Amino acid sequence: MLKRDEIVEILAKHGIRANENRIKILEHIFFNECTTSAIELIEILSNERGTDKATIYRNLDLFESKKLIMKEIDQHGISRYCASKSNKTHLHFFCSVCNQTICKEVDNIPSFGLEGYKIEEVEIKITGVCRDCNYEG
Ligand SMILES: [Zn+2]
Ligand SMILES: [Zn+2]
After folding, report:
1. How far is the centre of ligand 1, averaged over its atoms, from the C-alpha of 111 (Å)?
2. What distance in angstroms lies between residue 36's CA and the mean position of ligand 1's atoms?
3. Where are the domains of the chain?
């Protein structure tokens, strides 16, 4: 689990000045196994700290442009964010029961039969029923 100091370090590495809002947003995104929407962040941070919406959207755009986080659009057309690590295959599992998007990272990148191609980033989307919902049913 990433500590506060590590988040400050990651921000510095990407040329972003650390402040309390930025740390809080990244803490939430990095510690979450599932993707987070801006609406969820607004709910949490405006209760906790009285942070305004515009600040949250602006920081999400900034983090995305610096590739600290990645954005994906879920099956309902809502933008969701999660931690982005290069050199890994990022897998998204959409659960059709609880509507969560679960993130998994796989160390090696499969070639997909693309011999001669240089793959830089892979994002895989899988739809189905997550483990929790599957056992409940
Ligand atoms: Zn589920
Ligand atoms: Zn993800």
Report:
1. 29
2. 15
3. 4-83, 89-136
Report CA(17)–ligand 2 centroid distance (Å).
24
> Mean pLDDT, consecutive 10-residue segments, the chain of 137 residues?
86 94 92 89 83 92 93 86 78 90 82 87 87 86
Domain 4-83 indexed as CATH 1.10.10.10: yes
- For residue 51, report the distance from its CA to the centre of ligand 2, in Å: 24
Pick the closest to residue 104 from 77, 131, 66 (CA basis): 131
**Closest ligand by atom to 33 CA:** 2
Architecture in CATH of 89-136? 2-Layer Sandwich (3.30)
What are the E-state strand segments in the chain? 36-37, 69-73, 79-83, 89-95, 101-106, 122-128
Q: Are 110 and 97 in contact (CB under 8 A)?
A: no
How far is ligand 1, taken at its centre, from the CA of residue 105, in Å?
18
**27 C-alpha to ligand 2 centroid (Å):** 15
SS3 63: helix
127 vs 80: CA distance, rounded Å: 16
